[in-house]
Amino acid sequence: MKKTSYNTPARKALIEFFKSNKDNQFTSKEVSKYFSYNGAPGKSTVYRQLAELCRDGIVKRYSTNVKTPLYQYFSEGECSDHFHMKCTLCGKLFHLECHEMSLLAEHISHNHKFSIDRKNTVILGQCDSCFEGENT
Questions:
Q1: Same structural domain for residues 50 and 100?
Q2: pTM above the 0.70 mark?
Q3: Contacts for 38 with CB less than 8 Å, ≥ 6 apart
Q4: Buried b (16+ CB within 10 A) or exposed e, 86-98
Q5: Structural domain count of the chain
Q6: What is the pLDDT tens value at each position of the chain, 136 positions in all?
Q7: Which of 1, 25, 45, 47 has its CA at a distance of 20 to 30 angstroms from the CA of residue 113?
């Protein structure tokens, strides 16, 4: 049974925060710090709401190489059927809508009897900007 989420002022505030920073990712500490300077909700409410927003599919939680998860907003259906790439240096997340990856997912499903959750699959590596920066 799915737990019901209420559309509280704190929930609305967090959703608006993420929508207005759509292309950015934040740690829970950064989100909490933002609200500590800009009014409610409080720290425990922020952490609880982040968990609920992730459970409800409004905000995505990504693990990084620094052991601190990042949170990012995605509009409904935006990440339902493709993979993602994440730069391990700058932390930027990229959508990977590629026919070849779909073929890979089909291969794995058919030949290895394993279904990949595409919207939650993240390939780690380095983006062009960071890769070029390291090699200049």
A1: no
A2: no
A3: none
A4: bbeeebebeeeee
A5: 2
A6: 456 678 888 999 999 998 888 777 788 889 999 988 887 788 899 989 999 988 887 888 876 656 677 776 665 555 556 788 888 888 777 888 888 988 999 999 999 999 988 777 888 899 998 888 776 6
A7: 1
